[in-house]
Each structure stands twice: as C-alpha cells, then as structure tokens.
Design a protein that fits this description.
This protein is α+β, with helices and mostly antiparallel strands. It folds into two domains: about 5-140, Jelly Rolls, CATH 2.60.120.10; about 145-215, Arc Repressor Mutant, subunit A. Helices cover about 40% and strands about 25% of the residues. It has helices at about 15-25, 105-115, 120-145, 145-160, 170-180, 180-195, 210-215; strands at about 25-30, 35, 45-50, 55-60, 65-70, 75, 90-95, 100-105, 165, 200, 205. A four-stranded antiparallel sheet has the order 1-8-3-6. Helix 2 (about 105-115) packs across helix 3 and helix 4 packs across helix 7.
Length: about 220
C-alpha cells in the first residue's frame, strides 16, 4: 500500500499540496526496541505506520514506565510532532514494540498543510480526540480498576494481538506496560498460576485457561 491510502483526505488536497507532501515524506524502518522519540527532542514528525507496532508511554522521574496506547498498521502517530501542538506539555516517549516500517512527514510540512487544508486539519483533530480518549480510558483503568483485573485484561489482550496463548513477555516488560513494580507483577502472576489461568516459564507466560482469565478481567459491575 502507498502512504496516500493512509490519509483519508488525500483526494481532497490540491495537486500542489499533494506534490509538497510527496517531495518531503520519507520511508523508514525501526528495529524492535528502538526508541523513536523521547518527548524532549525536537519534533520528529508525523508517522504513518505501514507495518509493525509502536508503543507510546510516559516515564516517571524514578524511571517507571506506563503504556498509554499502542499504534498499529494504518495508524498515525501524532504526538511525535508535538511542536504542532504548543499547548501539549507532557513528555511522551515512543518505541518500536516490533520491527516497524513507517512513513515520516516532517511536522512543519504537515503544519503548513493543516493551515491551508480544512480536511487535513479536521483529520488531525479526529486523531487527537481519539488518542486523548484512549489516554483518559487508561487513566480510569489505573485509578479505578484493581491490579489483578488490569493484569488479566492485559494478558488476554496480548494473546489476541499475538494470536497465541504462549506469550514471550518478561515480568519487567509487563510492569513497564502497567506502570507498576516487577515484584507486584510476579506476585500476581504466581497467583494466576495457582488458580490455573497461566503457566509461568522463564521469559514466557502460557495462558492455560483463557476464559477464566477473561472472566478475571471483568469488572464486578459488568
């Protein structure tokens, strides 16, 4: 697929606007584990994900991470172009969770495009609204949902994303996603194992009872 298929407003641009984007967009690749943006750098630009998976996360002063949302093929990474949004103050980091291919549109080029194209500006607003909704949902989970339910939900979601019941995840990695200490993750996973929901091995977690795990992830009110 060409990058134009990832921009729903492409056919609403003028020929000159399309040409400017085509002249400045670049295609890049990032290996799994690569930190693409740490929130303190100058604008990276807008990323259009062709293949792979990115993770957007916050890093506390103590070095603890928490995942806010993920980006998949077809998604646009907006906060890597934070210079377009002067009112955004938090420092978001972005890393490649898998080997990833993406197109990069320089932030200043897209900013100029938004100033001259209402469809492009509207699309950015839609993406921003969607991302903030995801972030707010995540904050609600952290504030109101018990850790056992959050962990069960995370494991069930990972199984769906990877298409397997055998997850190659360290306890430290899970802790980074959920914003807690590794010891807390280990303790809860051992409890899940005692309940027959998972089987723990070095570097892997096998889900042995997915239905029970999904039930454990449900809120009491649901």
């Amino acid at each position: 697929m060409e990058f134009t298929e990832y921009l729903p407003f492409w056919n609403q641009l003028t020929s000159s606007q399309q040409l400017e984007i085509q002249k400045e967009i670049s295609f890049r690749k990032a290996k799994k584990g690569t930190l693409l943006y740490n929130g303190q750098e100058e604008c990276l630009g807008l990323l259009l994900i062709r293949q792979g998976q990115l993770r957007a996360f916050l890093l506390s002063p103590e070095g603890r991470e928490i995942t806010l949302y993920r980006l998949f093929p077809g998604d646009l990474c907006l906060f890597s172009a934070s210079c377009m949004m002067r009112s955004i103050q938090f420092e978001l980091s972005i890393e490649a969770e898998k080997d990833t291919e993406f197109w990069l549109i320089p932030a200043e080029r897209y900013k100029k495009l938004c100033e001259s194209s209402a469809p492009a500006a509207n699309y950015i607003n839609e993406v921003m609204s969607s991302r903030f909704t995801e972030v707010m949902w995540r904050m609600e989970q952290i504030m109101w949902k018990s850790f056992d339910k959050r962990l069960a939900d995370f494991l069930a979601t990972e199984s769906t994303l990877e298409g397997t019941l055998l997850l190659k995840l360290t306890h430290e990695r899970i802790a980074a996603h959920l914003g807690t200490a590794r010891e807390v993750v280990t303790r809860m996973l051992r409890y899940f194992q005692s309940e027959g929901m998972v089987k723990l091995s070095r570097g892997t977690i096998e889900i042995t009872d997915l239905k029970k795990l999904e039930k454990a992830a449900e809120d009491v009110s649901s």
